[in-house]
Design goal:
The protein has 309 residues and is of the alpha/beta class. Helices cover 32% and strands 15% of the residues. The structure holds iron/sulfur cluster.
């Protein structure tokens, strides 16, 4: 890793938590990851938005742990900051080998999933691939809780931003993701992503995204006002021309079974109302999911292919 990247890890303010710990010293901050690559999985995902996945899927690098701790996280096996981290994937060359092997089966895009706390490592991986002559379309798939300074640093590395915008209501962010001030932080991050990419999604002849911004929002059961608040903010404060992926795939993971609101999947009427908000605020580009998606996207990171088990 380049010395400039190492320095960022020595007084860590890579994400908005601003822990200021030295990750080389065995001192871990909120995300409980050190200076290593902390990769949990490298796999092909045939996922939500066709423009991102293409017909061959996207090669996704999943990092361990996260700077949010959402109680309903579908990737909880690897995102829980108390979970152990595999030491199998801790070598830049080995990970690059695996990425290249998977890219050679057809995918054109490389996604980094939950990268907000792992940006220096992500850059190091991208530079390692570039040194080997590989320049896939890089997709930054974050939870939206990103630092603006860090986003400025990766402007020339990221082709497509694919952030979540989870909450317009900070009480929910605090209660469900232990992320006070999520709305203000994610709003600033989205504005920065928009400054970099605008609302035009550049796609190839094959229909695959090459440059741009797609904002995801997962509709939570019982929280329609949160969803409409998110859509209102994007439309009125950023642009209604942005591509939105309005996701209905929520399902309760074991940790929230029995929760008064989060303990069930969405019902049709709820999602229909979310779509009404999408239309009301003038969005006209993006993707709506069918409710059958609640059974289609259930990763299990015990398997080598978490999405194909
Ligand atoms: S990346 Fe981790 S250690 Fe650094 S500021 Fe964020 S949570 Fe803290």
């Amino acid at each position: 890793m380049r010395s400039e990247l190492k320095e960022l890890l020595e007084k860590c303010a890579i994400c908005p938590r601003n822990c200021m710990v030295n990750r080389f010293d065995g001192k871990t901050g909120y995300c409980r990851t050190d200076e290593g690559l902390n990769v949990a999985s490298v796999c092909i995902h045939r996922g939500e938005e066709p423009v991102i996945s293409g017909s061959y899927g996207i090669v996704n690098v999943f990092f361990s742990h996260c700077n949010l701790q959402c109680i309903y996280c579908q990737n909880h096996q690897i995102s829980d900051n108390k979970a152990s981290i595999s030491s199998e994937l801790d070598d830049n060359e080995l990970i690059a080998d695996e990425i290249i092997r998977l890219l050679d089966t057809g995918p054109e895009a490389l996604g980094f999933v939950s990268p907000s706390h792992m940006v220096p490592q992500m850059i190091s991986l991208i530079e390692g691939l570039q040194a080997r002559g590989r320049r896939p379309v890089v997709v930054y798939n974050s939870n939206g809780y990103d630092s603006v300074a860090t986003l400025r640093m990766i402007e020339n590395y990221v082709d497509v931003y694919l952030p979540d915008f989870k909450y317009s209501e900070n009480e929910l962010a605090r209660e469900y993701s232990s992320a006070p001030g999520y709305f203000e932080t994610a709003s600033a991050a989205l504005r920065e992503m928009y400054r970099q990419k605008g609302s035009t999604l550049i796609v190839s002849d094959k229909g695959y995204a090459q440059q741009g911004l797609v904002i995801r929002h997962l509709v939570l059961p019982g929280h329609l006002s949160n969803t409409c608040g998110v859509l209102k903010f994007i439309a009125e404060e950023i642009s209604p021309n942005i591509h939105i992926s309005l996701m209905s795939q929520y399902y309760p993971v074991p940790g929230v079974l029995g929760h008064k609101l989060l303990g069930r999947a969405l019902i049709e009427e709820e999602y229909r109302e979310a779509v009404s908000c999408f239309n009301e605020y003038g969005f006209h580009k993006g993707w709506l999911q069918g409710l059958d998606s609640t059974t289609s996207y259930r990763p299990d990171f015990v398997f080598d292919h978490p999405f194909e088990h």
